[in-house]
Amino acid sequence: MRAPSSELPIEFDGVTVAAGGVTILDNIALTLAPGAPTVLIGPNGSGKSTLLRVAMGLLAPSRGCITWGGLEHVPPLKRAIVFQRPAMLRRSASANIRFALRAAGIPRADHARRTAELLELVGLQGLADRAARRLSGGEQQRLALARALARDPAVLFLDEPTASLDPVATKAVEDIIRTVSERNIKVVMATHDFGEARRLAGEVVMLHRGRIVETGAAASFFDAPRTLEARAFLAGELLI
Amino acid sequence: MPNDVSALQLVLSSDPALFAIVRLSLYVSLSAVALAALIGIPLGAWIALTNFRGRQGVIVLLNALMGLPPVVVGLAVYLALSRSGPLGSFGLLFTPGAMIVAQTVLVTPIIAALTRQTIEDLWIEYRDELTAMNLGPVGRVATLIWDARFSLVTALLAGFGRAAAEVGAIIIVGGNIEGFTRTMTTAIALETSKGDLPLAVGLGLVLIGIVIAVNALAWTARRAGERLAG
């Protein structure tokens, strides 16, 4: 069982991100606490990916502040992110994981064991020596998960990890996310797939036009959404 | 070398004079490419990953330097290496060393410019991942150069092509001295002017053969590497 992390809670206090005169995130106040996965939902362009990047520490807010475990400047040593289209390094699947282990400062003596464990966790043990860029989309996404987990993160951010995957590949990725969450790694995931949000979320944060329109426990969000936007979104209407 | 033999006979008879010229040509061009790679690859990577005032101007200049006229480079290196020049004390003028220096000057911008473009393209692809992994500047450069290694082979080949085919610079700084600084290209120019066409054609055939062989070798290595690493 993982010890309580200094990364959590992640608190957004009036976070605004603007670029080129466009407000991408608008005055976000949010707390990401340990526990079940938090799923960010909302239409394209609602600010989900930007929120993840701010939470990861890849993007600084234009206004407001973000803290990790109460501290403002925390190097991202225990945070990891999987992007929607992860870049595969031009080397084998196992070498991709070893690269992440090296970058995370894991002692070289542990690399072989950790690589084997991570490949098994994501079901790629049979493809360890295959060039990462020659893996299928679903396999690449699973490898990206393994690479992120190589950092032994306390928080794992996932940016639409199953977008453009078929149902079989989606199920494989979702199974890994459940396993990761059961190991007390906080999962924060963006998606615009309701079904996926229902299957995985413990808590839902709905974004629209850069603002949080509703947050709450997944069950109550899906059963009794409080806002017009959430009701419209869940009804399958186009939110523009 | 006899004048009444055909170009093919010269090549097939393993003429020692011809092979001495071929050996020196390869030594000069490969040394220049190696030195240019040592300078040009880190330089190109640094320009690709660094924002500084005047960066766009440097990129335009670097691209323009790919077309440096060899005779101008030869003249500049000649002035630098001549007795009264700033590097005259090294005594390199009219030696293979001077030819290596001249070709290094010619080839470095080619390798640096192509490296800059290759690394910049790869950085766009890798930026998010490497930043998320909290990789430092040295780690980023090393990773990008390693992962771009198969594409950088093309830059090295372009540099080798330029060096192997070049005559203007090395004839000025090397002097085309028989048995000492005579290379394939300078010998072809000389023998043609003397009317010894079989030797000139023989050397031309060897030169083309070497360029094709080096390219084929590099292409095969690149394909094999890409199969393994993706």
From TrEMBL, chain B:
InterPro entries: ABC_perm_TupB-like, MetI-like, MetI-like_sf. Keywords: Membrane, Transmembrane, Transmembrane helix. It is a multi-pass membrane protein. The keyword Membrane applies. It is found in: Cell membrane. NCBIfam families: ABC_perm1 (NF038017). This is ABC transporter permease.
